[in-house]
Amino acid sequence: MQANSSDFILQTTDLVKEFKGFTAVSDVNLNVQRGHIHALIGPNGAGKTTVFNLLTKFLQPTRGKIAFNGKDITRMQPAEIARLGIIRSFQISAVFPHLTVLENVRVALQRKENHSMHFWRSDKILNSLNDRAHELLESVGLGEFANTVTTDLAYGRKRALEIATTLALDPELMLLDEPTQGMGHEDVGRTADLIRKVSKNRTILMVEHNLQVVSKLADRITVLQRGAILTEGDYDTVSQDPQVREAYMGTEAPQEASA
Fold first, then answer.
1. Where in this chain does the record put each ABC transporter domain (predicted)?
2. How many Cα atoms occupy the beta-carbon half-sphere of 173 within 13 Å?
3. Most CB atoms closer than 10 Å: which of 44, 82, 152, 207?
């Protein structure tokens, strides 16, 4: 059944980003359906991170339009985008290493509750957020690590903490930038299961190199090559596309690849 425009939480129209004559993103029309996990894949240099930077307004597009829930957000600032409900989890873990796991989540909750001006002043405000912080930590499998200093966490658990701090901001749309990068096999599986779990009642757009993760999670996949959309579809459709096999995996079948 054909999706209506109202079914799409995020849409881009002819999105272009040029850098001094180099076109990094070329006429990208992206339609992210509400409630789906949508993966953005492609070889290195395909423009995936640039698209993410445009969507979260760390870059302004040269041309084109970005709409969130039907609202034009093309010229909004990053803080405005976050307040609307678009929250990005960065490729490199973005948590405070010398705070405890619980403190990291409380800081994020504090931001959501607009208490940021009281950060260094009121333990009472922070302590009032403990129950919700513990709930979030349990939801990502970190309940027993609440009092652990973040720098002492294993890498995979740091990424789980980052997802918890993202969830603390109650996003309607989560943008995950290579959430399994640098992980061992066990952590990859755990993180994929976590992403599936937290996708309930929200939409996820993710950049991910690990095609086993993509095949497990993604409802729809957009393949970029040289800044433009090469093809779109579900995993079975995309993985059998000759252009995708050539551009993304060379002579290897995508099903056999893990990075």
1. 10-251
2. 24
3. 207
